[in-house]
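User: quick one
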Amino acid sequence: MFMKIDNISKTYSGERPVRALVDVSLEMQAGQFIAIRGPSGCGKSTLLLTAGTLLAPDSGDVSLFGEQPYKMNGDERAKFRGQHLGFVFQQFHLVPYLSVIENVMAPTLATDSATQAANLNTARVRASELLDRFGLGDRAHHTPAKLSSGERQRCALARALFNQPKLLLADEPTGNLDPDNATIVLEAMRRFADDGGAVLLVTHDDRAAAFADSILWMNQGVISQLEPVTL
Amino acid sequence: MTLSHLIFREITYRKLNFALSVFAIAVAAMAIVASDWIVRRDAEVTRQIMAEKIAETEAAIDQKVQVVTAAGADLEDAMRKQMLGLGFNVLILPENQDVSELHLSGSLSQTMPENYVTRLAESKIMTINHLLPTVMKQVKWPEQNVDVVLYGTRGEVPLLHRGLKKPILDAVAAGQMVVGHSIHQKLNLKVDQEIEFMGKKFKVSKLHPERGSLDDVTVWIDLAQAQELLGLQNLVHAILALECECAGDRISEVRAEIAGILPGTQVIERYSQALTRAEARKKAKQVAEESLAAEKQAGEATLTREVASRSQIERKHRQLAQVILPLVLVLAASAVGLLAYLNARYRREEIGILRALGLRTRQILIVFLGKSFLSGIMGGVVGVCLGIATGTIVGPLLDGIDTSIGAGLTQQIIGSSGFLITLLATPLLAVVLSMLASWIAAATAASQDAAVVLQGE
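Assistant: Done. Structure below.
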C-alpha cells in the first residue's frame, strides 16, 4: 500500500470556518493514477496537500509507504517528503533566479551539504537526462522567465521526478497549458504510474482525467464518488 | 546544487536588495570605525600638541635658565673681579684705631690678637664671606730708600661652617714678595728677582699691574714675616672681609654680628660702589629668576589651557559619537531587517516550493542567514574602508587642526593595537548585526507554512 488515508478531516479556522475535508478515506497502490475532481473549494487541493505531508489534518490518519509522516517532527517529515514525493503545481513554482537545469536539481538542496557536493555530477547527469526527456535539453541554462508556460511546467515535472519519488502529487498541472503541452505532461505522469509510481492529480480538465485510472469526485469536503475511467 | 550556490544566485538576481543591505551595514560599520578613528585621532592630536607645547615650554624655560645661570655667573664673576680690583670691602679694626690714619696713610697703628680671625672663622657668622688677617703699615724700604705700605697676609682663613670658596686673594708664601705697580716700576723689579727688604731676603713672585689705588705703593709678604719685621708677633692690624652678596644696606647687620663675636672691634665699609654694582647685578639676576618663574608659570598655564581645550573637544566628539553611533546602528539594523523582511516576502513562493521539495527549517534559515552573513561581511569590509576615509576627512574638519600636526596620524592610528581590534571586530560586528537584523525575517520564512503558500498561489 502506497498511501492510506483514513477518515481525515480538516477545517480552516477563521470568522467563517470552512470544513475542507470531512472524514475522507482513500487508498492508493503502486501504479495507480487517481484524478480528483469537483467544484472549486470542494477540498481537492486540501486533500492533495494533506496527502503530500504539507498540511496536517485535524483528525484521522495518513500513512505513506507504511509510515505516518504526521507523527514525525517537521524536519523528519521534510526529509521524508524530499525522498518519496514529487509535486507539480499549476503555477509551476520554479525558482526564478535558477537556470532550468538548476531548478531540476533543486531537490538536492534538501540533502546535507556533503551529499550535495559529492553527488553534484551525478545530479547534473540525471537532470540533463530529464531535460532531454522533456524536450528542454537546449533550454538547460535559461532562466524560467525565458520559457513558455509549457516549458516551465515540463521543467517543474522534471524537478518533481528528479528524486525518483514513489508518489507524484499534481495540482492542476495543465491549467495553464496549451493542449500539446498538457498532453506531454499528462503522458509523462501516466508513464510514471505505469513504471510503478502513483499519481494523485487534482484537475478540472476532462482530458487530464482521461489519463487517470480512476476519478475521485469530491463535494464540500466529502468524497462523493470514486469511479474508474472508461475510455 | 548547494545552498551556497542558491544564495549566490539569489544575490545576483536581486542585486538591489543585496546592495541596499550591504550599504546599510557599510554605513553602520563606517560609523563605528569613523567614530573610533576620530576619538583616537583626538587623543593622538592631543598627545602631539601637548608634546609640542611641552617641548616649546621646556625650550623657553631652558633658555631662561641659561639666562639666569649666565646672570648668576656674571654676578659672581663681576663680584670677584670687583673685589679683586677693589679689595675687601669690610675692615675689622681694633676699636681704638683712628680710621683717619688709614685714609690718610693706608697704615694702621693699633693691633688686636691674631686669633680673632680664628674666632670669627669658627663662629656661625653669616654676613661676611672671606676673612683675611693682615698687618699693614707704612714703612721705609731702607735698602731702596722708598716709602711703601707693607702688607702682611697669610691668606684667607676659611669659615668652617661654609663650603670652601676660592680665595679672592692668594696667600703670599714665606720668602716671597708681591710688589705694587709704582714700586716695581720705580725700582725696575722683575719677577724672581732676589731683593732685600728690611734686612730680609725675598724673591719677587708677582708684579701687580697699575690699580690706581694704595695697592700701587704696597708690597705683600707673608704675615708671619711681616709681624716679625714689625715686631707684632701674634697681632694683626685688621681683618679684611668681604661683605656677603646680599643686596641693601647691611653694614649695620655686619657690625652687630661681629660685635657679638669680637667685642672691642670696629667695622668699617669700603668701596660701596662695588656693592652698588653688585646690587645691579643682583637685580639683573633676580629679574632673570622672576622671568624664569613667570615663564614656568606661563608654560604650565598654557599646558593647562591646552589640556582643557583638547579635553573639551574630545568630550564633544565622544558625546557626538555616543549619540550618532547607536542611532546609525539602529537605523542600519532596521533597514537590514526591513530589506530581509521584504526579501522573505518576495520569496514566499520559493520558500513554499523548497519546503515541498524537502528542505528543513535549518536549511531555509541558512538560505536567508547565509545571505545576511555575506551582506554583513561585505558591508563590514566596505564600511571599514569608508570609516577610515571618513575619519581621515572629517577628523580635521571637526577640530580644525591643520595637516602639519595631523601628518603621520593615519599611520599611527592604524598602527595602534586598539584600532586594529576595531578594524578586525567591526566586520564581525557587522555580520552579527546583519544576521540579527535578518533573524526575524529568516525565522518567519523558515516557519512559513508551505501549504498556505502553495494553496494561496
